[in-house]
Amino acid sequence: MHPQLLRFGDFFIPSYGVLVTLGFLAGVWLSMRLAKRRGLDPEAVLNLAISCALAGIIGAKLLMIGLDWSYYRQNPREIFSLSTLQSGGVFYGGLLLALATAWVFLRRSKLPALETADVLAPGVALGHAIGRVGCFTAGCCWGVSTRLPWAVTFRDPAANRLFGTPLDVPLHPTQLYEAGAEAAICAILLRRFSHARRGGEIVGLYLVLYSSARFLVEFVRQQDHMNPFDGPFTAAQWIALALLAAGVWLLLRKREG
After folding, report:
1. Cα 63–70–131 angle (5° rounding)?
2. Domain that holds residue 40
3. Could you give the residue ranges of the DSSP H alpha helices within 68-219?
4. Is 122 inside any structural domain?
5. Which residues, in sequence order, are bridge partners of residue 12?
6. How many Å apart are CA 157 and CA 243, to the nearest integer?
7. Residue 251, phi then psi, degrees to nearest 5
8. pLDDT per residue over 54-92, tens digit each?
9. Residue 159 within any structural domain of the chain
């Protein structure tokens, strides 16, 4: 739609970067408020959030490169190109590396792992919802063509130049599907937060809800790489199933308590 928010000669401020930054700040603000309600150290939660955010940025780009390695192997300079730098990458790559970073951070701190994950989960959902709006403005992560009445058509040449976005073709607004799902998930988590009786319930619910939503969205999202195992599911869908199983385990663990 509008990948360049402001432009000054050859320099421009990307809409995606601005919205991702706003999403991060909103998510951290929400998680710090929830940390206070749970009696956790807000400063420690802030440090954890910053560490996870940096890991998320790196992980998202690493998985993006890994899934399309045949292209990047033939064009190694593209790894450090402006389009790669500005691309949001693959969210699951960021989530997985962020989870690993959180695990290391929590082992070295005095924060309780599951309770901390519970206060972070609504913030992640909120920040991701805003970030997906950024994807929509940039034109990345687009859907397959469709004739549905809510299809969107990108026409800005900058989106095509930066991300390869198809122009003048009605597409599924997969970015908005995911943004709407994450906003709804955030609302559900906040509603449930005060009633949670055991650590891990909120993050478990987040994993179940988001993984289910992402699994479905993948069916109408444009794929630029082969599905693993030559099967019907994308790499993101396989990761979604694994995280769904982890979320179910956390919820069943609660019930067993």
Report:
1. 30
2. 4-196
3. 69-74, 82-86, 91-108, 113-138, 157-163, 174-193, 201-217
4. yes
5. 7
6. 37
7. -70, -40
8. 888 888 888 877 877 777 778 777 777 666 665 666 777
9. yes
